[in-house]
């Protein structure tokens, strides 16, 4: 179920109605939270004057491809566990996908890269990596696609939540670079804090508007530090 709510600029926002069982009463809350990424379309509506993510002054290449369990085990035996994330299956029926990124600050010497394919640039730049990781790059399948990556961030600014009707979470609220690996963590925290705030509203301990404001106040303090130290 959803309602269509008028928003500034003669636009309309289709907002899902969320049912929450508070005590013995079913409370219907119609709040819109969006986590639609670094280039959030909803952010363009809520913060039209400062919605653009800012491109960081660096070059970056990225790729991903499937590797065998044997190669994964070899890499894990040679590299720090902080290089790995996700689950740790006990069987060999899973396909393991490795993601590799390489970034650098452009310099005058980068002129030699002109005309080279992204794959060739990636292998050239990666030749200085430590042996365990470089061996994985050297074994990259010939048909692997390497792409240029735009690293962006969105500085800590405010947006109009239309009196608590709409808000942002995840990368749409605090887009940061990948170097510290904290973007997903903060997205999860956003969800937990917002859920707790809406639960208080469902229990009549706060209005829905105050619940959204409380979430945003906590998140803005947390995200400012996270964005500032992420690169």
UniProtKB/TrEMBL annotation:
Record-level Gene Ontology MF annotations: FAD binding; monooxygenase activity
Cofactor section: FAD
Keyword terms: FAD, Flavoprotein, Monooxygenase, Oxidoreductase
Protein origin, superkingdom: Eukaryota
Pfam families named in the record: FAD_binding_3
Sequence ranges assigned to domain FAD-binding in this UniProt record: 132-228
Gene3D superfamilies reported for this sequence: FAD/NAD(P)-binding domain
Entry protein name: FAD-binding domain-containing protein
Taxonomic path: Eukaryota, Fungi, Dikarya, Ascomycota, Pezizomycotina
């Amino acid at each position: 179920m959803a309602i269509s709510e008028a928003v500034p600029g003669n636009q309309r926002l289709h907002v899902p109605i969320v049912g929450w069982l508070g005590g013995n009463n079913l409370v219907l809350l119609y709040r819109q939270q969006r986590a639609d990424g670094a280039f959030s379309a909803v952010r363009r509506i809520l913060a039209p004057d400062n919605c653009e993510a800012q491109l960081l002054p660096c070059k970056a290449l990225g790729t991903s491809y499937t590797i065998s369990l044997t190669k994964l085990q070899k890499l894990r035996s040679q590299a720090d566990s902080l290089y790995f994330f996700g689950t740790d299956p006990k069987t060999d029926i899973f396909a393991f996908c490795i993601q590799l990124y390489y970034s650098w600050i452009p310099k005058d010497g980068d002129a030699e890269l002109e005309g080279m394919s992204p794959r060739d640039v990636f292998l050239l730049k990666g030749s200085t990596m430590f042996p365990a990781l470089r061996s994985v790059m050297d074994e990259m399948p010939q048909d692997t696609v390497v792409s240029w990556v735009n690293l962006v961030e969105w500085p800590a600014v405010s947006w109009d939540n239309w009196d608590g009707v709409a808000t942002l979470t995840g990368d749409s609220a605090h887009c940061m670079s990948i170097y510290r690996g904290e973007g997903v963590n903060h997205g999860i925290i956003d969800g937990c804090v917002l859920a707790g705030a809406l639960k208080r509203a469902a229990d009549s301990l706060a209005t829905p508007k105050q619940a959204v404001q409380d979430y945003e106040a906590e998140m803005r303090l947390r995200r400012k530090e996270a964005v500032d130290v992420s690169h």
